[in-house]
Amino acid sequence: MAIAKAERLMNLALCLLGTRRPLTKRELRDSIEAYVEAFGPGRGAAFGPGRGAAFGPGRGAAPASGRGAAGSDDSFNRMFERDKDDLRELGLVIETVEGIDGEIGYLARRDSNRLPPITLDAEEAAALGLAAKVWQQARLAGAASGALQKLRAAGMPLAEDGGEDYDAGPPHSALEPRIPAHEAAFEPLMLACRDRRPVVFDYRKSTAAHPEQRQVEPWILECWRGHWYVAGWDRGRKAERVFRLSRITGKVRSRQGKFTAPVPDHVTVRETVESWAGETATGTARIRLRAEHGYPLRARALSVRELGDGWDELEIPYGHGLDAWLVEFGPDAVVLEPAELRADVVDRLRAVAKG
To answer: What is the pLDDT along the chain (355 residues), one digit of tens a residue?
Structure first.
C-alpha cells in the first residue's frame, strides 16, 4: 500500500510539473492510472485512441469501486485532496488557478519548485541542526528531520553528525532550545502562510465577550514572549492586523483564491505587538498596587513609594494596551492617573463582569 501511494504521488507530481496549463481534477483523474483503476474516469471524459469512449449508460464499464458515479466522485475528491496536501507537505509548490469557466485547475511551475545548489559552511550547518531541534514540540519535527536527511543524502555535513570541519560540541546537551506550538491554529496558519492561501477563523479580542469572524490573508507567524502571533491583511477591516493564536477559537478554514493585498517585504510583528501591549511607552501612569503583589508591574516601575496600609504607589511607563494588562491584576491594582487609562480599565472590568 505504501508503494502504491508513493507511485500515485509521484505520478501526480509529474503531471503537475509537466503541464503548461492548469489541469482540472477531471483531467488529472483521467491522466493518472491509479485514479482510473480505483474510481474509473471522470464523467464526460474523452479518451484517446484505443481507450474507448466516456463512461455512460451502455457505453462502458462501471467505476472499479463498484459504487455509483456520485460515490466514486466523492471518494476520488477525498483522495485527491489528501494527495495534494501530502505533496505540499513534501515541499511541492502547487498553484490553484480559477479558469474562465470557473473551474479550478492545478499546476506546479518548475521555476517555483527549482532550488539552487545548496552549500553550507560549518556555522550554517550547525544552525540548521539547532533549528531542527527547536521544532520537536510541533508537527514540524517530522519535516525538520526529513530536511536534515535530505541534506545528508546530498553529502552535506551537519553538526550533529560530528564531521571534521567543525566543532559540534557534545552530541546531547542538557539544555536544548524549544519553541512550543500547542495552539491548534498553528499548523493550518503555517501552511496558509506558506501557500499564500486566505483563511477564515473566529477571533476573540481581549475586550470582547464573544468571538468575531475574521477573513485574513496571513503573511507570517512569529513567537514573542512565549505566545504565537500571525500578521496579515484583514479583509473585513481592510488593514494590516496581528492576531494572537491563543485567542483564535474553533478551526482555521482555508479559502480559495489569491491574496488581494500585496505582501510587504518586512512585517513588524514584534513591534506591533509591543505597541499594543504597552511596551512602547508614550507617557507614564500612576497606580496603587497592593503590597507583595504585581511583581511584573514592579519590575517595570520607574519609581515605587510606600503608602502604608498594605499599598504602594508605582509610576510605570504608559502605552497603548496597558489597560488590558492592568485588568489582569484585578483588585490588587488601582489606576490613579491618567484619567483616560482609569476609564479604560473600568470599562474592561465592567465588560468582564457582564460576561
So the answer is: 556 888 899 999 999 998 889 999 999 999 999 999 888 876 644 333 333 333 333 334 444 444 456 668 888 999 999 999 999 888 889 999 888 888 899 999 888 887 677 777 777 777 777 776 666 655 566 666 667 676 666 666 555 554 444 444 444 445 555 666 678 898 899 889 988 999 999 998 866 678 899 999 999 888 877 788 898 999 999 988 889 898 999 899 999 888 999 988 887 777 776 665 545 567 889 999 999 898 888 988 899 999 989 999 999 988 766 787 888 888 999 999 999 989 988 988 888 777 6
Distance CA 236, CA 215 (A): 6
Report d(CA 341, CA 350) in Å as an integer: 14
- Three-state SS at 203: strand
C-alpha pair distances (Å), 217 with each of 95, 231, 233, 253: 16, 9, 5, 12
Residues 6+ apart with CB under 8 A from 298: 289, 304, 314
* Global confidence as pTM: 0.45
At 298 the three-state DSSP class reads helix
Per the listing, cell 491583511 goes with 233
